[in-house]
Amino acid sequence: MYRRIRDLREDHDLKQVDMAEYLNCSQVCYSNYEIGKRDVPADVLIKLSQFYNTSVDYLLELTDDPRPYPRKK
């Protein structure tokens, strides 16, 4: 999961500090998510899936299909 989160960030030409700002956390905190030193909370996974327009299952490597599920209104 951690590599996938990093790869998505890099694919979007973003820096860790950019994602940390979006998630309202420090760059160190976000870096710890990417390297697996800190578990990614469910609310952060949801924000990341919305930002990257994918599913939490894709972030967690439960599927290789990056398409998001339909969201509730």
UniProtKB/TrEMBL annotation:
Keyword DNA-binding: yes
PANTHER family: HTH-TYPE TRANSCRIPTIONAL REGULATOR XRE (PTHR46558:SF11), TRACRIPTIONAL REGULATORY PROTEIN-RELATED-RELATED (PTHR46558)
Native species: Acutalibacter muris
GO terms of molecular function: DNA binding
UniProt keyword annotations, A-Z: DNA-binding
Sequence ranges assigned to domain HTH cro/C1-type in this UniProt record: 5-59
Protein name in UniProt: Transcriptional regulator
Highest taxon of the lineage: Bacteria
Keyword RNA-binding applies: no
InterPro entries: Cro/C1-type_HTH (IPR001387), Lambda_DNA-bd_dom_sf (IPR010982)
Coiled-coil ranges per UniProt: none
